[in-house]
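Page 47, continued from p. 46.
Same chain as before, 421 aa.
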Amino acid sequence: MPFFYKTLPAALSYAAQGFGRLRLPQIIRCGPYAAGNGAVGLGLLVGALLGLSACKANQAGAAAPGARPATAQLPPFDPAGAKQKLAIAPTKVMIFGLGHLDTAPATFQVSWLEPVLCRLRAYKPDIILTEAMPGEQVMGLEAYAAYHGDAGKYAGPTLQMAKAAQADLHLTAAQALVQANELCKKGDLTAAERRRLAGLFVAAAEPLSAAVQWLRLPAAERIGADGISPALAKQVTLWAGLRNEMASVAARLAADLGLERVYGAGDHLSDVAQPDFAAFKAAVAAEPGQVDLFNHNTPTFRAIPEEAMKLATAAEVMPVLKWKNSPRFAALDADAQWLSMGRSEKMGRVGRQRLAAWEAQNLRMAVAIREATAPIAGGRALLIVGASHKPFVEAYLRTFADVELVSVPALLESKPTGCTE
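Result:
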């Protein structure tokens, strides 16, 4: 017998609508057994609906005391809440912010950093990251130069060194990195193996890690041999002695702690999101005082006073680094350099676009940290980075399930055994 549709009386339809999820349409489908006796079928349906209503009432009455009402909103998902239930202690991450040392006054001496290095050695990071781009990104920007433009310029001579080492070793950057990782696992490397490892890191576009190997070698062993040419050996020697935070702090610290490498967390893939430079320049010019905000030339900053913090003497090192890592600097700098563009009507979408690119860059840095810390759950990581990045990277890291931030001001105020002021 074919199926047919029978209209449900309006009164019953309204009653059915009161059952929430049990709501029935006004049109119900009846099978062949209902076709012969519509009244009986309708009566059975009414009985079933009334029975379900009673069942629902009983379930509500039997609910456990204190049960959450059906209409209550659950709190939004927050992965950071998982830190309270981890089987082992959370992974600790320190974001150490500073001004770029290559812009310090000519009188600045790297030896003045020893009190800072002493405290960082006491922290004992398992991995160290820098603002340099990872080799994979350096090679990627080269491969996609037609799309990314000159973003690869921030790699400096890294690319030229990498290509020379790749030609010497007959390896691609990826192949060199695989071999370098395998050699790192061996431990207790000979001088020849360290030279080989340095050459592999250069080929992988990771010259700072090559510098770590160089610093771990006795000076007499820092020669061109075992896979690294004399020309590249000379360049790695220069990298190991650069007056910047990546070499003078990160690579030096890694060598002191017996680590085999440092990791690049810097990013310039996000440069593609930046506004056109001419449009950005015009937008900045249209907003009175924006350049002063960028340069910290405001009454608030002049009251610090930042102009006296130039690392011109050894006595200035600790005060400057304490200031650069303070919550107050983070709030003032982030607002002046970045958030101000979002508030500016005159800068409009151009300012918002520049802010978006900055956020994307810092998000990628946070992701690089999280990826590098994956194998060291419960361990310690350290990022050496420009101070303007610090508040943004820290904010993103706070959202992760297994990251606990470590206070830099507390570290600098501490006095580990053997550390001077």
